[in-house]
Structures are given as C-alpha cells and as structure tokens.
Write a sequence for this structure.
C-alpha cells in the first residue's frame, strides 16, 4: 500500500510537471541565506501561475556563501562567465544594480515588452541611473536598499539626548555619553560603528558619507578634490579615532548583527531593516548640516537573457510584470518590509497607516558611479583603498583626494600645465606653424615668385597649402574631450588633407607621363573633374561612417589615469575606415610608380626628390601609426602627444617639400631669383619680338 501511494504521488507530480508548458530558470545571489526575498517572490509567482492557469513556472538557483565557493566580490564574474558563453541555462537574472552597464550586452531591451505608460510608475531618476544604458532598458528594480542610523533609545533617554541630525552633533552626543558611561566603569559599549570594512559595503559607507557633506539638499555629489570631500574624510577619521577603533570600524555585517540584539551600542550604521530591534530607533543618516543626509542606492534588478528563446523571454516578461505590479509591490512593503521602486505607493493612505511613508520619502539616495568607470569592481577597490590609507593610515589628505580623483576622472590632452607642459608647448608650435602656412599664401600673389610656380596649375598650390593646414587641424583633434564630432572628424580631416596635398602631385605626374595616352589627356583637360573624384570619395566615406559611428573606448594608463579614445564598433565601420585607407595607400603606390617612371623627365626632374621625400615620410608616418598605440598606451599624455606630432609632422613635411622648399630656395638665393626673372623677361621680350615679326609679315602679305 505504501509503495502504491508513493508511485501515485510520483505520477501526480510528473503529471503536474509535464502540464507546465514553459519552465523558467532564474539565478540570484544573497549575502545571507536566511535574509533574502527571492524565494518569497518566486514562490509567490508560482502560486499565482497555478491559481490563474498561467502555464509558466520558475525554478530558482540561489547562490549564497553557504552553498557556493564564489566570493561575494566575484559574483559578477560568475554571472559573466555564464553569459559570455551565450548559455541558455538561465532566463531570468537577479543582479546588483551596479552591474547594469557590465551586463548590458547580455540582456534584452525591456522596452520591447513594457509600455511607456507602465514604466512611468517607477522612479524615473532611479531607472536612468541604474537600469538604462543608451536608451536601452536593461533591467527593472525589484526592491531597494537604503542605509540608516540605529540609535539606542535607552542611552539617549537616560542622558536626555536627541537623535543627532548632523555628524558634529553625533560626535558631541557620543563623546558626552562615553564620558558618563566610562565614569561608571562601563567599558564595552560601542559608541559608533561606521561599517567601513574593506569590501563593497565599505565603499557604500564612504560614498554616502561624502554625499552627506553636500552644501545643501539639492547640491550634487561633491567633486573628489572639493572641500566637502576633504571635510567628509576628516570627519570619518575623527569619528573612528574618538569613538571607535580600527578593528571595530573595519568589521562588517556580522558585527552589526552581534550588536543590534544587545543593549550596549549607542549608534550603529546599517541597511534599513524595520523592526529588527525595537530598542533602537531607525532614522536617516546625519549630514554635515541639518536637513542634508545621504544613502547609497542598494538593491537588485531583474533582467532577461538575450540567449533565451522567444517563448522563454515572453514568459520571463510575465514574471517581471507580476513582480513589479502595484499589488505585489504593496504586499512586499507591508509583509516583507521592502522598499519599493514605485514612489506613488508611498502616497497610498491605507498603506501609510501601516508603514512610515514619510520616513521612506526622507531618504536622500545617491547611485554608485558604475556608469562612469570601465570596471566598477576595480573602481570600488581603488576608491576605498585610497580613502582607507587616510582613515586607517598616515597618508596625507591632499594626496588621497588626488588619488580618488584619478580613479573616476577622465583625463584629456590640453594646454593646461596641471599635469604636463607638453600640451601647451605643442599648442604654441601649432600656432606658429599655422601662422606660417597661412602667411605663405601671400607668395602666390607676388610677381617675383610667380615664375617658380608654373609647373603646376596655379589653383593647385592653394590646395596643397590648404591641405597641409587641414592635416595640421587633424593633429589638433588630439586636444580636448572625446566627443562624437571629434571622432567623426578625425578620419575625415585626414582623408581630405591627404587628398588636397597629394592629388595635385598625382595630377602632375599623370599629365607628364612620357607616353601619350588617353588617361593623361583626360586628366590634363579635366583637372577639376579629376580632383572631384577624390573629394567625392572622401564625402561618401564620411556619410558611410555615420551609419555606424565611432564609439568612445575608455582606457587606464599605468598611473591609474582614465582617458578615452575613438574606437571602431561593429563590423561595418572598420570596413569603411579600411576602405578609405586602402584608397589612400593605392594613391601613394601609384605616385611612387609614376615617380620612378618619370625620374629623368626634364619637366619634373627638379621636383622629383622633394616629391619622393614627401611620400617616403608619409609612408614612415603611416607605419608609425600602427605601432604608436602600444608604445604610448602607458601614459595618456604621451599617447595624445605622439599622435599630435605624427599628424603635425605629416602636415609640415607635405607643406615644406611640396611648396615651402621653393620659397626657402628663392629667399636664400636672391641672385638666382633675379637671374630667373631676367631670363623670364628676356624670354618674354623674344616672344613679343617674334609676335611683332609675325604680325608685320601677316600685314605685308595682306598688302
């Protein structure tokens, strides 16, 4: 009979299992296996699906320190190892909101399923800072975590002290009570636990402490090198030195849970857990001035894997829709003490009879800078290491503030001498060269120089000078912040500059080709159509590059300084860029071939060596572009400085060897110039005499 019942039960369970059309696999991580919401949420949905006949069931794989060897700081790497393999193992991911930018490419755009009207229920600033990347809705918040101050009611009442609203007030209150308690022989009281361990929790405490030192409630998060940040770190160190100890301050969550259930702690800082111990009041964290507070935005988002089938993505959407509905969010607020990402719920009169809505609305949250750095994990580690070197060590405050600034600050090449004089020096050189190039136009209008520019159509000399200036401005694009405009203009300026400087030379070489041919004749008679072919190609490549524009690639040099460079993205843009470069390489190759074929021609003999020098240097500079990236990557100043020099050198050499050398030669050889002028005048007199003789002969013939 027992065997029969067991078989019947197995059969019944299998029947239920087989009746479910879509099975969703979800994964989540909890720091504490006894305090998490995921099991409650999933069980709630599965029951809802059964009650409503929805053929969807969710299976949860919950990772915790107890059942996983993965360290807390490595959980993002665990997720990424699964996602990077394009695994279909999990469909629904619960993840820390700081990793939205990191996992962005692996999750679908939820705008596909959620209407704009539905999304308006969420805190829009929260969505922008923790869920949206480049207009893509990567995830949705499940619940939020805010930090608060736990104050011992008994001790405050005993000494007639109120809950502090500023850090100075907290320090004064704690020092007063400490003096009184120690006079009674009470040595084991914790007067302030700041929760600043060497972990992500410590980074959160530091960020929100700095945020609480804003000048006013509406002021932005303080800059790294600001007075506010310096004052915040000074106060943290002061609180640690006068009220606590290194060991106590470095202790983490476990230490809080040890103390919160005792009566021997005055002030404890931790995440908001209502009702954990009625002996302690929970309030928002103090600030530097009254009315200003701060808390990091904690909590988890949920997202759908892009590698799941369309059917499972739709089923996962139904799970998310249920968990973010008004009714379920309200239920979680009342029954599970969760903070909801839907602000409107805290205006519900019935709900606010059971929950302190005004207290929840009084939090002043700040998101962690996960969108502003390449790797938030590395940023967080470096940030707290720098801050802790001052709080727990002997590092100077200015040095620490600079180190913190270096972690998140994006450096760029400029004329500022704060980091180096190189930018200013090269800019001065740029200005001098630009003035010389612009001034050189004047030689084309001087009668005594005109005889030396007859080998090439006069308009082409303007192109050569202008092309050199364009290349010089290509060098200037290495200055300043990287932007879409800068990234698009870099290859365009290079392409146009090369066209304007080298194509007039190519035109001359084709026209002077020693063997009569149709190409030379057409080129000679259609010089502007010839040039238009190359300019049109440049414009076409510019338009094609806009289809899939350049992106910003952030890097870190060996000194820990962030900087951005323009980088190709996708598969189409590299094809466009390489095609453009291919045409330029082909143009240079054709010029080299023609130079060798025409080396001994009288028409171009004097200029051959200069043309060859120009092309040789351009080839060397092209090769250097391929190797300079790896050589200078260790220092952002040298990186941009070397690139500037390469393009500036290209502009200068083209200008000198194609045009400037003639000016220099004439100015250094005035006698030769006068002889050339006399020869030109003599040639002109002979031509005039010949023309007069021809005219006399013609008139005589008519007579």
């Amino acid at each position: 009979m027992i065997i029969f019942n067991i078989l019947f039960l197995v059969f019944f369970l299998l029947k239920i299992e087989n009746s479910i059309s879509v099975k969703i696999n979800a994964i989540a991580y909890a720091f504490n296996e006894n305090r998490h919401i995921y099991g409650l949420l999933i069980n709630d949905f599965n029951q809802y699906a059964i009650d409503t006949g929805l053929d969807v069931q969710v299976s949860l794989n919950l990772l915790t320190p107890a059942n996983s060897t993965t360290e807390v700081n490595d959980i993002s790497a665990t997720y990424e190892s699964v996602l990077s393999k394009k695994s279909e193992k999990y469909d629904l991911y619960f993840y820390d909101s700081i990793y939205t930018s990191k996992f962005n490419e692996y999750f679908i755009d939820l705008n596909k399923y959620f209407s704009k009207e539905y999304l308006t229920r969420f805190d829009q600033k929260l969505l922008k800072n923790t869920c949206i990347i480049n207009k893509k809705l990567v995830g949705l918040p499940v619940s939020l975590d805010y930090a608060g101050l736990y104050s011992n009611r008994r001790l405050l009442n005993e000494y007639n002290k109120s809950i502090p609203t500023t850090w100075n007030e907290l320090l004064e209150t704690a020092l007063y009570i400490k003096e009184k308690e120690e006079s009674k022989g009470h040595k084991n009281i914790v007067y302030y636990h700041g929760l600043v361990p060497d972990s992500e929790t410590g980074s959160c405490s530091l960020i929100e402490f700095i945020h609480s030192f804003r000048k006013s409630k509406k002021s932005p998060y303080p800059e790294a090198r600001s007075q506010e940040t310096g004052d915040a770190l000074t106060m943290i160190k002061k609180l640690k030195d006068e009220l606590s100890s290194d060991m106590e301050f470095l202790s983490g969550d476990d230490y809080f849970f040890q103390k919160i259930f005792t009566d021997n702690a005055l002030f404890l800082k931790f995440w908001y857990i209502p009702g954990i111990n009625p002996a302690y009041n929970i309030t928002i964290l103090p600030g530097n001035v009254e009315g200003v507070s701060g808390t990091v935005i904690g909590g988890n988002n949920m997202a759908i894997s892009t590698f799941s089938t369309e059917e499972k993505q739709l089923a996962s959407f139904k799970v998310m829709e249920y968990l973010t509905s008004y009714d379920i969010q309200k239920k979680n607020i009342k029954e599970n003490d969760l903070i909801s990402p839907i602000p409107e719920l805290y205006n519900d009169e019935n709900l606010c009879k059971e929950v302190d809505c005004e207290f929840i609305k009084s939090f002043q949250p700040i998101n962690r800078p996960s969108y502003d750095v390449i790797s938030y994990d590395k940023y967080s580690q470096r940030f707290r290491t720098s801050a802790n070197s001052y709080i727990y060590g002997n590092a100077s405050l200015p040095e620490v503030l600079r180190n913190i600034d270096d972690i998140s600050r994006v450096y760029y090449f400029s004329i500022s001498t704060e980091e180096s004089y190189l930018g200013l020096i090269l800019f001065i050189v740029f200005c001098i060269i630009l003035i010389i190039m612009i001034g050189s136009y004047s030689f084309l209008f001087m009668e005594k120089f005109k005889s030396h520019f007859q080998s090439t159509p006069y308009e082409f000399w303007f192109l050569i000078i202008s092309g050199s200036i364009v290349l010089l401005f290509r060098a200037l694009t290495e200055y300043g912040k990287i932007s879409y405009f800068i990234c698009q203009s870099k290859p365009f300026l290079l392409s146009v500059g090369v066209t304007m400087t080298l194509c007039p030379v190519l035109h001359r070489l084709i026209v002077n080709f020693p063997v009569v041919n149709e190409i030379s004749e057409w080129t000679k008679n259609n010089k502007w159509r010839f040039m238009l072919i190359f300019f049109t190609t440049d414009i076409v490549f510019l338009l094609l590059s806009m289809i899939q524009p350049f992106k910003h690639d952030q890097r870190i040099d060996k000194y820990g300084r962030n900087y951005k460079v323009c980088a190709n993205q996708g598969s189409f843009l590299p094809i466009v860029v390489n095609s453009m470069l291919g045409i330029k390489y082909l143009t240079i190759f054709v010029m080299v071939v023609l130079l060798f074929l025409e080396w001994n021609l009288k028409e171009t003999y004097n200029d051959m060596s200069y043309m060859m020098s120009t092309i040789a240097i351009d080839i060397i500079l092209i090769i250097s572009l391929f190797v300079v990236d790896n050589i200078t990557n260790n220092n952002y100043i040298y990186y941009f400085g070397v690139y500037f020099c390469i393009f500036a050198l290209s502009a200068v050499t083209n200008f000198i060897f194609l045009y400037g050398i003639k000016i220099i030669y004439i100015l250094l050889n005035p006698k030769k110039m006068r002889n050339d002028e006399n020869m030109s005048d003599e040639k002109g007199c002979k031509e005039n005499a010949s023309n007069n003789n021809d005219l006399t002969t013609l008139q005589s013939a008519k007579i």
